[in-house]
Specification:
six-stranded mixed β-sheet; alpha/beta
């Protein structure tokens, strides 16, 4: 019977090992040939809310602010290129997209990393495989756990050691008074078990972070063996900072395997059960946890450096894959000293079948055109490519030339109900921050404004818009603005170049070619769209007559 049971256990373990090996082999094959699949991820609200944790801990001047990030829909762009396999890579990719490079040396070094992984598929796959093992920390970021370490307070092992030492006289008493010795040992065991669970529940949430740090060190062990001149700075950082955390590893098994056995991954075998009893009676995992906690608190910066270094390397891999996924083409940006933007055949990277456009702008650009003609998409195309150029050294265009800019936008604002601010107040504050950034003069400012001051009346909107846009056209600032107010094209013709998008109405339908045209728009479609949708003819006629009358006389007719 025992032999049969042993054979059964061996067969189960063998089958599990075979299944795991088969899955591992398939995963590696996919990394070679089907690497695009790994961006097909599901994001829970909690997880996505914490992807910015590394970014929020590494704030600095010139990063993409929340208004610009949200205006441009950069969350979706991030998801589109998120080919990372670990929390470290994912959070660093997010940080990279929001942190614009300001020196050519940064771009050159990053490009070397991307090229290395692109030219060495075996090294890339081995690195990705390691980062996949590093994995994630659940719905919370590692930084959430690290920031909450202080809640554990100062923890001492003195009481645990004293209780363990009391076992020695109890064992000695067995030779003097066996009954009393047994009673003493049992009472002490029961007391230790009862107190164990209280402390164990306190530390359990933090074991996840300890486990991640242990996996982080394991990945560093393997990664630093890479033979890559392009990565020598990163590999040296891994060696130096990993060494400082080595003491955490000694006897960490007691803590890590305890977490595994309660996390649903352990087999529940007899050996694990025995170790659990040892933990409960002698508190060995609590003792080791406290020593690991002390080391971790002393070396938070080293953990942060390891996360950032591995994250940078995995971001380089993700960018290489992202480039291969751009079926409509991509290019490396060229950084110049001229305060201009030159883009050839650029497109929005989120569009599957984009219409490409080119532009060369040495001063402000004012876009006009009908509703839905492509103005906002074009603004986002320029803005997103400006960000991609200075963050991942990649543009969705045939060519892209630009200096190093700070990038701001005011495009998709909303009322701040919780703050009690109207749309107009929100908008003028957003525009003021751009003017302040330009006035600071640290870097040239590239800004994008869609329908400036749409939150107020026509007369004041045109007057204020003229002066604000004129302020956004001076030295050190390059502004792309879209408007429906044709009057601005004349008022700002000395400060802005005019471009437009137009439409064609044919066979009772409206069609857009989304091609950028020089000059100001000469067509309007708002009233015609009412007709196409089926509004009453009287509404259409009266609206058209009023519009024509205003354009010819400058005054509104009552009708």
């Amino acid at each position: 019977m025992a032999a049969a049971l042993a054979v059964f256990v061996v067969v189960i373990f063998a089958l599990e090992a075979y299944r795991a090996k088969k899955e591992e082999k398939k995963f590696i094959q996919d990394l070679y040939s089907d690497y695009f699949k790994i961006s097909d991820k599901k994001y829970s609200l909690e997880r996505f809310a914490n992807i910015g944790s590394y970014f929020h801990r590494h704030k600095k001047d010139g990063q993409i602010d929340d208004i610009t990030w949200n205006d441009l829909g950069m969350d979706e762009v991030f998801k589109r290129m998120n080919y990372t396999l670990s929390a470290s890579g994912e959070e660093y990719l997010y940080y990279t997209l929001r942190t614009l490079m300001q020196r050519e040396e940064e771009a050159e070094h990053f490009e070397k990393l991307v090229e290395f992984f692109g030219e060495h598929p075996d090294e890339r796959v081995r690195f990705q495989f390691r980062m996949n093992k590093l994995g994630y920390t659940g719905k919370y970021s590692l930084y959430d756990y690290i920031d909450n370490l202080d809640y554990l307070g100062e923890r001492s092992n003195t009481r645990h050691w004293v209780l363990n030492l009391i076992f020695l006289p109890m064992i000695g008493m067995l030779w003097v008074n066996f009954s009393m010795g047994i009673i003493g040992i049992v009472v002490l065991m029961i007391y230790n078990i009862i107190t164990y669970f209280k402390e164990k529940n306190e530390i359990d949430p933090y074991i996840t972070s300890f486990s991640y740090v242990m996996r982080l060190l394991d990945v560093c062990d393997e990664t630093e063996k890479m033979k890559a001149d392009a990565c020598w700075e990163e590999l040296e950082k891994l060696r130096i900072h990993k060494k400082k955390l080595q003491p955490m590893r000694r006897n960490s098994f007691w803590v890590m395997s305890s977490n595994t056995s309660r996390g649903g991954n352990a087999s529940g075998d007899i050996l694990n059960m025995l170790f659990d009893y040892i933990r409960m009676v002698f508190h060995v995992d609590l003792i080791k946890f406290n020593s690991m906690l002390y080391i971790l608190r002393e070396h938070i910066d080293d953990v942060d450096t390891l996360i950032g270094t591995l994250g940078l390397m995995e971001t380089a891999v993700a960018v290489w894959i992202f480039r291969q996924s751009l079926e409509n083409g991509w290019c490396l940006p060229e950084f110049t000293k001229r305060e201009s933007v030159e883009m050839e055949s650029g497109y929005h990277p989120m569009l599957e079948m984009p219409v490409k456009n080119s532009i060369s702008a040495e001063r402000g650009v004012l876009l006009t055109g009908s509703n839905a003609s492509g103005k906002s998409t074009f603004l986002k195309t320029i803005a997103i490519n400006a960000i991609l150029a200075q963050s991942i050294h990649t543009c969705s265009a045939d060519s892209y030339r630009t200096p190093f800019f700070h990038v701001y936008s005011s495009m998709a604002l909303r009322d701040d109900i919780s703050g009690g601010e109207s749309y107009y107040i929100v908008e003028i504050k957003a525009l003021k921050r751009i003017l302040d950034a330009a006035a600071a003069g640290e870097r040239p400012v590239l800004c994008f404004v869609d329908e400036v001051l749409r939150g107020t009346n026509t007369v004041e909107r045109i007057a204020a818009s003229t002066q604000i846009l004129r302020s956004l056209s001076g030295s050190g600032i390059l502004c792309f603005a879209a408007t429906h107010d044709i009057e601005l094209t004349g008022l700002l013709e000395n400060d802005f170049d005019n471009y437009h998008f137009e439409e064609e109405i044919k066979d009772g339908d409206i069609r857009f070619n989304y091609r950028l045209q020089t000059g100001k728009a000469t067509t309007r479609n708002a009233i015609r769209l009412l007709e196409l949708i089926g509004y009453d003819e009287k509404i259409i006629e009266k609206a058209a007559r009023q519009a024509e009358s205003f354009l010819s006389t400058g005054a509104w007719e009552l009708t």
